[in-house]
Write a structure and sequence with these properties.
heterodimer; A: alpha/beta; Flavocytochrome C3, Chain A, domain 1; FAD/NAD(P)-binding domain; eight-stranded mixed sheet; five-stranded antiparallel sheet; 17% strand; B: alpha+beta; Ubiquitin-like (UB roll); Fumarate Reductase Iron-sulfur Protein, Chain B, domain 2; five-stranded mixed sheet; 36% helix; 10% strand; binds flavin-adenine dinucleotide; binds iron/sulfur cluster; binds FE2/S2 (inorganic) cluster
Chain lengths: 561, 271
């Protein structure tokens, strides 16, 4: 049980057959021609999920009414609540707290710690286990301008350039200013940063950086960050109560004669007993992460199981505006074989070292170092339009990434030397990537946009704060590696702190006579759906993705709808 | 190979498995019940293919969160094996049970107050004493090696426990670094040790008190706290896209191979 199946091995022969000639040409610097500017535009608009009009539509309701997003996102923005407000007695409170944090990834946990340090009681409600998140999956590193020849000034310029200058500048200023504070905070919590013997942090370049400021903890930086902040939260259980397997499904606002409209809690859902609970809080931090598991247009994803855009859906109903949510980061080369590696990122370096992309007939079909979005379009075109992809035994399609060329071009042993982690990751499953190519296809990696916030982590709804991948603006329409681990901690901490200040300043009338919790915004939203003619809305938020195959569904003969 | 164009259209979408016609199917046993699933799937995807929807026991689906610890045997074989459901490929006649949760011992502590300042000067004893106080059971390890055999991350768990016993915090921290905290080791330990929680404690002790602090970072933090960069950043935030583009294209790039901390840009006015 290892390596490629006999069928795939058969197909591999074509790649091997054409390789010597391709290597010969590469040696002479003869490459497959890059696309012209016009072609790029055409390819992008036809094949790239962010550009092509197919698979996208305008949302009919809510604060971003009329703006275009992927269908999978619009379906959820136009979804109906999981609950019927009429069945719920909002005067019966199950949990009462100062701050409710929704989502226990890096952003949520950081917010909880800082709110607690500011004297508050915190409840953290999370969908899966504490730490089952995208945070835990980040390998590469975290940026922060701490070296002598660097400063937040340069970090700012890099981040803006990376985001094609579409980032929200006040957020980038906060991000880069706080970066050294965040690194120092992690260090003081006992995080095992990669360091020189004298304590100096290791610092590398990342894509689009002008200074070496990528810091790491082995090749599991995100996992180490998550373990450390989670461990610290577990030291403070008297003040920080974590409710696992209890996703939030709806935000609660307050209402009173004098106004209200502040966020004042949420409805949680116990995944196991299927009960709902009412949490009343003086402030709420939304930190539910990204949306990779929506599998926009069927793409595989690098994201964790719970990345289903729940926070976006809840906050949208409560009136929070979305920013840049139509922009998604796809990585052109995600593994599609073997199954354990599906979604795994294959770094650009593999192509940088000379590997070509090859179709089922053993032919080149694009220049291997086009910009990420263009490269993705080329692969999609080859597979879907031309039908020249290679199918895996379980129905995935990809193209070959001919890594053995690296050995031919740069000498034996180069693959192991330059790509040790990838080498091991495939070797484990019987594929030696210095001798056999990989199968790849674009993969959905990062939700660039999200809830609109300011540098304090405030949304437009008073009392509702937000941080992390669920927000938009920090990275504009393209994120640089290492800036989102930073983002979640900077804005997680800021959210926690500002929620504390908001509460300490006295949320006037939050407990007084006549102040009630309300789900009116949900009822109003559903009326809007009806008025807009949204037919058969799905139920949202999604909570868990569903991968049940059709043959199983077809046998679910029970009566329940 | 027949080149049927139909076959080349993708069937699987997202993480949903839709095997092409003629895919090889194999029998597996999920908690004792037989299901027939396509070969090459992971245990996790095979379980979904069988019709289960995960709630517990599934997190990252990428081998790093530790939610999916799994034990299995093959029919007719006495050997008990273990792995992560998202990283282990199904094989014929595999009998599978996931262990989505296992109770562990995790005493609370205050990292700030825990250890006397002397530790930095090499008072090897004190952190060790703390470990003894919080995790006395670690010192009762019988050296059976079951944990090491069980660990899906190929960590020599018994060895890091031995290093802890000896007071080699550095060794234990480094040796346990790849731990995904799945709890499989603890589920099999005859001495009832929660190896992975003790290791977490030791890693934080090591990170905070044994690894030297970064001096350059401390200096930069002081500068940030003094508000040194606020004005610079504010000015940048007000610049037009064209001005920013100019700054962006004119950036000086730090070379890849310079001695850490020694390289300086030509213009030092923004440091
Ligand atoms: C494979 C991979 C590699 C990456 N590499 C890097 C890198 O090298 N550097 C970098 O900077 N960034 C990297 N990133 C991006 C970065 O890891 C994430 O953007 C970031 O960690 C998101 O953090 P978060 O706290 O906002 O969300 P998450 O960490 O995803 O946490 C969100 C939490 O909210 C929970 N949740 C969701 N819905 C609900 C609900 N309804 N109710 C309650 N809880 C809910 C989730 O279960 C989860 O626990 C990578 C991402 C991936 C996937
Ligand atoms: S040391 Fe224990 S908890 Fe950690 S990965 Fe190995 S078996 Fe799992
Ligand atoms: S299983 Fe327990 S007793 Fe056996 S070696 Fe591991 S820690 Fe020691
Ligand atoms: S699901 Fe995270 S390790 Fe398997």
């Amino acid at each position: 049980m290892s390596g490629y199946t006999p069928e795939l091995k058969e197909l591999l022969k074509k790649v091997e057959a054409s390789r010597p000639a391709r290597v010969e040409r590469a040696r002479k610097n003869q490459h497959f021609p890059a696309l012209t500017m016009e072609q790029r535009k055409e390819w992008l608009s036809k094949y790239h999920p962010d550009y092509k009009s197919e698979g996208r539509r305008a949302v009919k309701v809510g604060p971003n009414k009329g703006e275009t997003f992927p269908d999978e996102v619009v379906n959820l923005l136009e979804s109906r609540s999981r609950i019927n407000p009429k069945n719920i007695d909002l005067s019966k409170i199950d949990y009462e707290t100062d701050v409710l944090v929704i989502g226990a990834g890096g952003a949520g946990t950081a917010a909880a710690l800082i709110a607690q340090e500011n004297g508050l009681k915190v409840i953290v409600a999370t969908k899966l286990r504490h730490g089952d998140s995208n945070t835990v999956m980040a390998e590469g590193g975290i940026q922060g301008a701490d070296q002598e020849g660097d400063s937040p000034y340069y970090h700012f310029i890099d981040a803006m350039g990376g985001g094609h200058f579409s980032n929200q500048p006040d957020l980038v200023a906060a991000l880069t200013n706080d970066a050294p504070l965040v690194l120092h905070w992690l260090e003081s919590l006992g995080l095992m940063f990669d360091k020189y013997p004298d304590g100096r942090m290791l610092a590398r370049h990342g894509g689009g950086t002008c200074r070496r400021r990528m810091h790491s903890a082995g090749d599991m930086t995100g996992a180490e960050i998550m373990r450390v902040v989670r461990d610290e939260a577990r030291n403070r259980t008297e003040d920080i109560k974590v409710l696992e397997f209890s996703p939030a499904v709806e935000l609660l606002l307050d209402t009173s004669a004098s106004g209200g409209g502040r966020c004042a809690g949420a409805i949680l859902y116990n995944l196991e007993t299927k009960e709902y609970y009412i949490v009343r809080a003086k402030a709420v931090v939304m930190a539910t992460g990204g949306f990779g598991r929506l599998h926009i247009q069927g793409f595989p994803t690098t994201n964790h199981y719970g990345a289903t855009a729940d926070g976006i859906v809840m906050a949208y109903r409560a009136g929070v505006k979305l920013k840049d949510l139509d922009s998604t980061q796809y990585h052109p080369t995600g593994a599609v074989y073997p199954e354990q590696n599906v979604g795994l990122l294959i770094t650009e370096k593999v192509r940088g070292l000379g590997s070509q992309l090859i179709n089922i007939d053993g032919e080149e079909f694009c220049f291997p170092l086009e910009p990420r979005d263009v490269e993705s379009s080329c692969i999609i075109r080859e597979c879907l339009d031309k039908g020249k992809g290679i199918m895996t035994p379980v129905g995935r399609v990809g193209v070959w990434l001919d890594s053995p060329m690296i050995e031919a071009l740069h000498g034996e042993g180069t693959v192991r030397k330059e790509l040790p982690a990838k080498y091991i990751q495939f070797k484990r499953y019987g594929i030696d990537i210095s001798k056999e190519p990989m199968l790849v296809y674009p993969t959905l990696h990062y939700q660039n946009g999200g809830l609109m916030i300011n540098a304090n982590g405030e949304t437009t709804v008073p009392g509702l704060y937000s941080a992390g991948e669920v927000t938009g603006g920090v990275h504009g329409r393209n994120r640089l590696m290492g800036n989102s681990l930073l983002d979640i901690l900077v804005f997680g901490r800021r959210s926690g702190l500002n929620a504390a200040e908001y509460i300490k300043a006295g949320v006037k009338g939050s407990r007084g006579q006549g102040v009630k919790l309300t789900l009116e915004h949900v009822e109003k939203f559903e009326k809007e759906l009806k008025a807009a003619g949204v037919k058969e809305p799905v139920i949202g938020p999604m909570i868990l993705p569903e991968y049940t195959p059709d043959h199983v569904k077809a046998r679910r003969w029970g009566q329940s709808a | 190979m027949a080149k049927d164009k139909k076959l080349i259209k993708p069937l699987a979408t997202g993480d949903k498995t839709i095997p092409p016609e003629g895919a090889k199917m194999i029998p597996i046993y999920i908690m004792g019940r037989e299901y027939v699933v396509p070969e090459t799937l992971t245990i996790m995807k095979a379980t979904e293919y069988a019709g289960y929807q995960y709630m517990r026991g599934c997190g990252c689906r990428g081998g790093i969160c530790g939610a999916c610890g799994t034990f299995y045997r093959f029919l007719g074989d006495y050997k008990l094996k273990s792995g992560l459901a998202c990283q282990t490929v199904v094989q014929p006649n595999m009998v599978i049970a996931q262990l989505p949760f296992f109770p562990s011992n995790r005493p609370s502590y205050n990292l700030e107050k825990l250890v006397p300042a002397g530790i930095k000067q090499g008072m090897e004893n004190s952190p060790h004493e703390e470990l003894r106080r919080l995790y006395p059971e670690v010192f009762k390890c019988v050296g059976c090696g079951t944990c090491t055999r069980t660990c899906p991350m190929d960590i020599d768990v018994m060895d890091y426990i031995a290093l802890m016993k000896r007071g080699d915090l550095k060794g234990a921290a480094i040796k346990s670094f790849d731990c995904v905290m799945c709890g499989l080791c603890a589920s099999r330990c005859p001495a009832q040790i929660s190896q992975f929680t003790a290791a977490m404690f030791v890693r934080r002790l090591y990170g905070k008190y044994v690894l030297p602090a970064a001096e350059h970072l401390k200096k930069r933090v002081e500068a940030v706290k003094s508000g040194k960069y606020l004005k610079m950043l504010d000015e940048l935030a007000k610049k037009s896209t064209d001005e920013l583009k100019k700054l962006y294209t004119e950036r000086e790039r730090e070379p890849d191979m310079t001695e850490p901390g020694k390289w300086m840009p030509k213009d030092v006015s923004h440091l």
